[in-house]
TrEMBL record:
Protein's UniProt name: diguanylate cyclase
Top-level taxon in the UniProt lineage: Bacteria
Entry EC number(s): 2.7.7.65
Cofactor dependency: Mg(2+)
Reactions accelerated catalytically: 2 GTP = 3',3'-c-di-GMP + 2 diphosphate
Keywords annotated in UniProt: Membrane, Transmembrane, Transmembrane helix
TM stretches of this protein: 21-42, 48-68, 80-99, 105-122, 129-149, 161-181
PROSITE patterns: GGDEF
Length: 385
């Protein structure tokens, strides 16, 4: 029954509706003292009057419930309709208090339950406004009763005392509720800051400090994801191990700092080239490039078969070889050798990388500045220019 009322697929709406049901229960709760009072004839109102009042209350509440349940309030700033509900309940409470005059002491607690209900979303300012509305609402009711409806000799002082007590408790409740709202906001802010810090930490833990590319640890986890996806969807993917040629000479000639600059410049340039290849539709899916270690890089090409991967790496090789990278020692030309391998169903990451590394080794051995694949029949692409 409850599962029909509260949708399981929408946790936020489910939470709002559960609160709604709590509101219904609060209404019904106040019937507990009223029913025996009616039974023993303690109230001046008859059963029909009380039943009419509670029926109106339930109808209003069910209407609010349906508005939230159907999702009509989803786009509103206050999808729980908290403020309209609280102020409707305030009017209802005043009517119930008037109708059950003899049980007034108990019924005044309705106002406290209203303020407590406000904890589900009122702001500090809204709590102040609500306190003012409760006090002035009750004062208005008393004024109406005494001067227009049924003035009663001597009861005015008693009523003034009640109003004073109500004002004090309402202001005090508004203060406490505001404090709780403040604490909750601070907690929510702290939680958000922690979440942000954690996201930043995770991001920096996944990045290589020098180049800003994914680091080896993160690359391995991405490869793990790719492997799982390939197994799930039977989709191909390929990798390429890329190693800069004669990089030691750059360090030896120009110093380590310039070597670092070359690594950074190469990373930025390669990323730009891969993005351009992806944009023009050469690649089936967005590639990922990361620093595998030292002057070695790993390229992951999702949804890409061996031939296409080799063609893509070859294009990258040609553009790197014809481009000079700006460093503090002036523009420096560079090239890389690469080994490309397509994932074979069932193989491990270590085996895939080993095959790419073997192809890379062959590319280095055959003179560098070339990209080799692992498929025997494939003609090695690239040339030593
Ligand atoms: N500047 C700089 N150099 C690095 C970094 N990491 C590794 N290296 C250097 O990269 C060089 C790699 O040298 P080798 O493995 O001999 O390779 P290579 O000179 O590129 O020769 P081949 O790969 O055979 O073409 C070493 O001198 C390392 O010290 C780094 O983060 N910054």
């Amino acid at each position: 029954m409850l599962s029909h009322l509260i949708p399981a697929d929408d946790p936020v709406r489910g939470m709002l509706l559960r609160r709604q049901l709590l509101g219904h229960l609060t209404y019904l709760m106040f019937l507990v003292p009223v029913l025996p009072a009616l039974w023993w004839g303690w109230l001046h109102t008859d059963a029909i009057g009380v039943a009419a009042l509670f029926t109106v209350g339930i109808v209003i509440n069910v209407t609010y419930f349906l508005l939230i349940r159907t999702g009509m309030t989803r786009r509103l700033k206050d999808p729980a309709l908290l403020q309209p509900q609280i102020y409707t309940a305030l009017v209802m409470a005043l009517a119930v208090i008037h109708a059950t005059d003899e049980a007034r002491g108990v019924m005044l607690m309705l106002f406290v339950s209203l303020q407590l209900f406000g904890l589900f979303g009122l702001s500090r300012r809204q709590f102040k406004v609500l306190a003012l509305a409760i006090i002035s609402g009750y004062a208005g009711l008393v004024a109406l009763e005494f001067w227009w409806l049924r003035p009663r000799e001597g009861a005015l002082r008693e009523e003034m005392l009640r109003l004073l007590a109500l004002a004090m408790i309402t202001v005090w409740m508004a203060f406490v509720c505001s404090q709780i709202v403040g604490m909750r906001r601070a907690l929510a802010r702290r939680k958000w800051e922690l979440k942000l810090a954690l996201a930043r930490l995770e991001e920096s833990a996944a990045r290589d400090e020098l180049t800003g590319l994914h680091n080896r640890r993160h690359l391995m986890s991405l490869l793990g994801n790719e492997l799982a996806r390939a197994a799930r969807c039977e989709a191909p993917f390929s990798v390429a191990l890329i190693d800069l040629d004669f990089f030691k000479q750059v360090n030896d000639r120009h110093g380590h700092q310039v070597g670092d600059e070359l690594l950074q410049g190469f990373s930025t340039f390669a990323q730009g080239q891969l993005r351009a290849l992806d944009r023009v539709g050469i690649l089936a899916d967005e590639p990922t490039v990361g620093r595998y270690g030292g002057e070695e890089f790993l390229l992951i090409l999702p949804h890409t078969e061996h031939e296409s991967a080799l063609a893509c790496v070859e294009r990258l090789r040609a553009s790197v070889a014809s481009h000079a990278i700006a460093t503090s020692a002036g523009p420096l030309g560079t090239s890389f050798s690469a080994g490309v391998a397509q994932y074979e169903p069932g193989e491990s990451i270590a085996s895939l990388l080993r095959r790419a590394d073997t192809a890379l080794y062959r590319a280095k051995h055959d003179g560098r500045n070339r990209a080799y694949g692992t498929v025997d029949s494939a003609q090695p692409l690239g040339s030593n220019t």
